Amino acid sequence: MRFERFLLNDVLIDTQKMSVKVEGHWLPLEHKQLALIKLLIERAPNPVSRDDIINQLWPNLIVSDNSVSQLVAQIRKTLNDTSKEPKFIKTVPRVGYQCIADVANAPTIIQHAKTPQKNVPLNWLTAGLFIGVMSAFLVLFDFSASKPVTQVKYVSRLTSSPGAEVYLNFSPNGRFLAYSQIVTGESQYDLVVYDLQINTSHTIKSSGYSEQAPSWSMDGNWLIYYRYSPFSCEIRAISVHNTIELWRLNKDVFVLDCDSAQIPGNVTWNSTGQLFVREMNEGNKELVKYQIEETEDRQISLSERAVVTRAEDYHMRGNRVIYQQAQQWYQGILNGDGEVTTTAKIDIPGKPYFGLSDSDILSVGKELKLHSASSEVTSLYRPFGEVSEVSLDRGKGLIAHTEGIAEVNLYSYNLQGDSFEPISSNSRIDTHASISADGMQLAYVSTASHADPHIENVEIWSKHRFKSSPSLLTKLPIKDTPKLLVFSPNGEYLAVLSQSNTLFIISTFSKTPHSVVKENQSLKNIYWSDDSKTLFFETSESNHPQQWRHDIANASNALLPENAQQYVPLVKKNISFQSYIEDVKAYLFEALEGEIPLQQLSHSLQLYRPAVHENGIYYVIRQGHQLSLFNFNSQLQKNEFIADIGLHLYDVNADLGLSTTASGTQIILNRVENLEMDIVLHEFILE
């Protein structure tokens, strides 16, 4: 067996070039990745223990089993392999890993040329001649309208280390790419800059704090970033006017205070001396503008604060801004005073970014897509996992984006044992959990952790308390995923609201769904009657509210009289009530008497959906990266700390929330784990 060039199934590996050809694209491989592949092949079909791998790849070094797991995960990601359905590397429980792929020498040109002829029937020769003539005709006349057009070309993977590299931002001159990096097992981000001119990364800040979301001043002389400690948050800036090797020695300066519960966002320092940043004001996220000046002693001075618009998120390019209000994205124009003067809705799936031209929009998610002004949509890149963010250098035509996966797993928290018990598989993303009032039934939404064209549905699973494993309840089209699950009080029915605002009910016994309302954008305020026989909801006609009841026995809807609207207590409300989070926030802020600052409470409740029960409210507070679970006991009027439930290191665009029984004796929650994000570089191919 020659290890210079060989085939692993249908994948070509070139050890001299340190690269692998997967689906027609060359991707880089690291030395240890190649060493492990070679070791597994040499020992096949026998498995190789973790200890043997450590001894072979890390001789005379003390490393943990996690190093082996991360290395295997990197190889699987490159080869588009999975641990659940392996084609290359199989995990052998309590032993190690085994190569299960077919291995062969790569065929050479000479071998192709000496392939022996076979006797071919005349009809096959005739057919071959016809196909050859037609192929030549197509090549000569080049029907370009039917040929796919390559919009981006893969350049390289800039990072490939265990952990996550996120918050990307090109410098104004396009030479540098700033990002935040966190290593697996750590709880703080470092600030890193990649020099694309010499292909080298430099750690600029590794202070023990968490430095995140770097951005550049328009002149390229300052690097601005968020600094988090367990109890505070600051926006700071570091001068980068000298050579990059000296940046880490430059003194950073204070710019602005921020809320430690806030997820970092963009900071824009434009060429006219204006600084734009997202802030929280009385529970509302706003895009705020300051005048910014650099003083003679190289400090930063801010003045003239003004609110531009409400914005949950935003991106800016020149005088154009993309921003989000009430889950809806808009595009606007900023005038000379930094005010939004012209706006238009952006109705595309996924998070939007400015494209290479002023008329294009990029969107991220399961695919990287380009949306033209003529409403044409082009799939540019399908990642392994998801693309969560992008940064463009328009001058050089480069696009850098994140690519990776994270696990979102469900847990039951044991109040007596102070422990977390896993409920769902860690190979998928499990969200929108709902537990019945008596705690006997649990339902949740399960989606694939990475894009797969063969997966067309999202699944709803259910689990009975006394059964060891969950069972599939129903499937929905992947483009219409559920956003709310609500059990009836007796646990026999599950109301499901989808992204298209379609409401249907599933019997937990027959598992048969039936539709209640289809694609009604005004649908809201969904709740069950106490006897589980009726589902109430509200729609509107010509801005006039209409109250409805759905009778379970007859599977029919009836319009209620205008004066029939009932008071709905907080314990029956859910996210279909537009004021639900605001109602919980107002109740908690008053009951806690300011113990938790309003801004911190607002950020935390928007990050993690709370759960109301008969005796109080379970909720999560974010302090820095730490997530802590609390219960406000309404009977005792006491705020009770329950447990630390983990870290929130990055927004993976997954629904996070709590669910509890009527009495509050059981708690279900999900959390993000094993975040893996790399940076990939492409260049645009212009037509």
From TrEMBL:
It comes from the Bacteria. Keywords: DNA-binding, Membrane, Transmembrane, Transmembrane helix. Residues 3-101 form the OmpR/PhoB-type domain. The chain crosses the membrane at residues 122-141. PROSITE patterns: OMPR_PHOB. CDD domains: trans_reg_C. Residues 3-101 bind DNA. Pfam families: PD40, Trans_reg_C. Signal peptide: none annotated. The keyword Oxidoreductase does not apply. The keyword Transmembrane applies. Belongs to the TolB family. This is Winged helix-turn-helix domain-containing protein. It comes from Pseudoalteromonas obscura.
